[in-house]
Batch of 2 targets.
Target 1
Amino acid sequence: MGNLFANRRRRHFILLMKYWRLVFNDHFIIALFFLFGALAYTYAQMLSYVPPNQWWVKLFLTLWLGLVVHVGRLATLVEPADPVFLLPQTSSMINYFRRARYYSMVGGEAITIMATVVSLPLALATVKLTNFEVGEVLVMMVLLKYSHLLLAQRHLSLGANSTMLNVAGLGEPLVATALTWWLSPTWGLVVTVIMCAGHLARLRANETVDWVRAIRFEQERMESVYRFFNLFTDVPQVQGRVKKRTWAAGLITWLAKGDAWAYLYARGLVRNVELSGLITRLTILMMVVLFFVPLAFLNTALLIVGLYLIATQLTPLADHFEAKVFTHLYPLSQTVRQRAFKRVTTKVVMVVAVLLALASLGGHLNWEQAGLNLIIGIGEGLILTRYYLPTRIH
Amino acid sequence: MILEINDLVGGYSRVPVLKKVSFNVEEGQLVGLIGLNGAGKSTTINHVIGLLQPFSGAIKVGGKLLKEDAPAYKAQIAYIPETPILYDELTLKEHLELTIQAYQMDEQAAWKRAERLLKLFRLDNKLDWFPVDFSKGMRQKVMIVAAFMTEARLLVIDEPFYGLDPLAVHDLLDLIQEKKKQGVGILMSTHVLETAQRYCDRFVILADGRVKSQGSLADLTKNGQNLDEVYLNLARDEQHG
């Protein structure tokens, strides 16, 4: 059964590599460069203003470290057919799931350590820590992540009390990190070791697999992985779920003004959870970034990059109905379709541009900056929807 | 003549599936397109509805060629596919609205026709449903309503009976009769030979991308055979030869 996992891990890894290659395309590298630059700059600026021994900084550190252990879930790689085909092997699946846990630890611990290291400058600006105590914090975080994975596996045991486990999963890391920042890192570490040992013992006592739950968890996990990749490329596994969104009826009517194609594009865009969700998430993310970046030239540069990123996400809409034979049968010419696509995307990009410009007002209500951004945003939006997006349609 | 196919050679890639297929559908006529799996029925239909370009030969709908005036050609055709295809993002009502817009029909008159069909198929209380909520049979009914509400002069129906309950099959056949009376030409592919025998005016039997024979039931059958036997004989000939 250990071999089975090794095989699946290899297959999974190849799949992930395929998508990562698409994620790190040239455009995205440029955007990342700006985004990280902006974040690092803001962080560095902020550090010099942080006064020592502030309760809200400690609260932030507690929440940040207590919640970041939830990033990087247990990847079991089980498949829906497993309970049928592996039924005779159920008892020896323990080995399989252990391998799965070790595999999940590699990525999970890496993320945890990175998140901890990033927060250390802030921690050192608030509380005095000796080198030994910094080490204690790091060890505690590693153990908390391990504990998180043990808990995740206990979730998959038959007869698991998921409410209890959920409370423990959310609460324990917060308790440990709270002790660290308000009492001492040593206390945090001691409590973590005890909790971790407890989970390990309980898991050893009951390692039978609840297949239904294991499969559901794994499917949910893969769905979120695919959804992440779908931000950057088309993932066939992400089937567009549909929501009626009655509250957006007005928006649909406004977008759909015109002909049959506008009618289709407007509904496809607003009701398809993937398409509209992506545009909304990116817009909100960019709005938050623009709100907090004070540097004028960086703010405008981010707006330009952000609007470009969001607008390009609209290209799949052009071919969204390609598989529906009826779109080829309507007695309408191709120009009608192109015109409708241009019209719908222009409206969407204009709305996004206005929202981004509004966000760049920032906390200090910088009207000059927002006005400049509005003009640039609308200009860029017009260029993108008139000349750029149509070239991306085949 | 609403549909004229002359020496059609065509297929999906460069390899022809159809080899010199010729047949016609007259106004007010129901023509059954019969053949084994892979005989070329769907390929023929895909050419007629304009999804594929003929390699050679010509298809005229109402005297018009696709490449000369695509919108005018397509405006005359309504199509019901073998498996129902619906837009996930549109409700039943919106599917019909879209059809009205796409075919540029008179809204009131079209809705009147649609309402009658919706009632007939017991869909009139499901106007706000999305395709995910429909069963296979209901989806098929939506396709039927959308196609029959148009004023198309040629109906192309691909294997319409699967998934429909007996009552709906009966209603569909009634609707087809009605359309025939209005002078609409209908091309229908099917494996349900018993029904075809009773309702079709003419048959086109395809085998290996060629028209094996065509004509009325009387033309095709000798000495009291039924369509089933004619068809099985043809199929056996093919296997052996």
Target 2
Amino acid sequence: MAHIIFTENLRRHINCPEQHVDGRTLAEVFNNLFSSQQALKHYILDDQERLRRHMLISIDGKKIEDPVYLSDPVRPDSEIYIIQALSGG
Amino acid sequence: MSTLALICTRKGLFQLSHDLTLSAPDFAGVPVSMALASANNPTWYAALNHGHFGVKLHRSDNAGKSWQEVAAPHYPKHEDASQGDSLELIWSMEFARSDNDQILWAGTIPGGLFYSDNGARNWQLNQPLWQHKTRQQWFGGGFDHAGIHSICIQPGKPDLVRVGVSCAGVWQTEDGGQNWQNKAQGMRAAFMPPDKQFDPNIQDPHRMVQCPADPRHLWVQHHNGIFKSSDSSESWQEIENKQPSAFGFAVAVHPEDPLCAWFVPGIKDECRMPVDGKLVVTRTRDGGETFETLDQGLPTEFSGDLIYRHGLDINSNGEQLLMGSTTGNLWISENQGDSWQCLSNYLPPIYAVRFLK
């Protein structure tokens, strides 16, 4: 199962501890993750279930290439970081 | 001490008490784009714009003592995810029924009007108005996409609703949202090509307010100037030659006197600051025939304060006005604007001020 780590800034607003989730693509991982944590979904994905514009996800150290359909592949031992692009003041 | 007003800022929601003290902010550090509360009900709402994490809505069931996240409006899923819309901002919220704090309208960017009849447990996009938006290609004013910033519900006739849209003029429904008509006839957009200047569908009203005691009368601070309607928005008349300028964002109307309204003039596109760096409020008591310039208690030195469209409000008896600026200054007037008292110079940029009514 892939290991998901969330930015601390997100943990300030919603409960999202590190966790292990199944899935062969990021979309599948998210489907499994959000099936039990619906509220978390809206912090990461927009109304069309795209990655929010100012969020950033890396899988095994590489920024994802498909923020719209989330088709980036995930391995059973992948490490997924959900972080925010830095902006604002 | 009970709460007099809510102050929505870039760094949280402040409660202003009747003794004119400010609370520590709720949602510290988070932009609060709009709030909705009434003096008679304990259920309040606060719209947050987290930026990275999107727009969220919180509800308090104990008059602001504690908050819980509830459902924010959502745009329907498009068959192609790359094409669909997503909520960008809750720009306006009003109670749809004056006696029920669970029935709400919310105006948003990118242009959708939403309705909830269960205290924001869920929302419905008003499809009839959204179809007008889609067909007519409403466009943004100050934002990338169009938005609904003003919702005026006819006193005693809750199915008669008008909304102000940047940029698509004024829209009215008489049947609770099933059918909508544009009601911006007479508005003028001098910045558009000549053949488009009077097109009702491209008008940029910055803010629209309605006189509760005589709801035939509405006022609009428009990008192009000030407009007034005395016939239930069937027609609008431009108030011209207003000094120091006709540009601004905010407007407030006296709750009982439809001829009495307040504005905060500024320099338009090229600067967006007070004319000559001098912050003033203007007031008309005769329906726009004449204006008084009010500055007692406002800064005497250079001021870069801009008052956003929701940054001016009037209380229910028409005596008190609140005004908050982009520079984080907050003023109150207890005498209809004759004089102003500064309540803070140190707030974050202020998006909206709202008396509890």
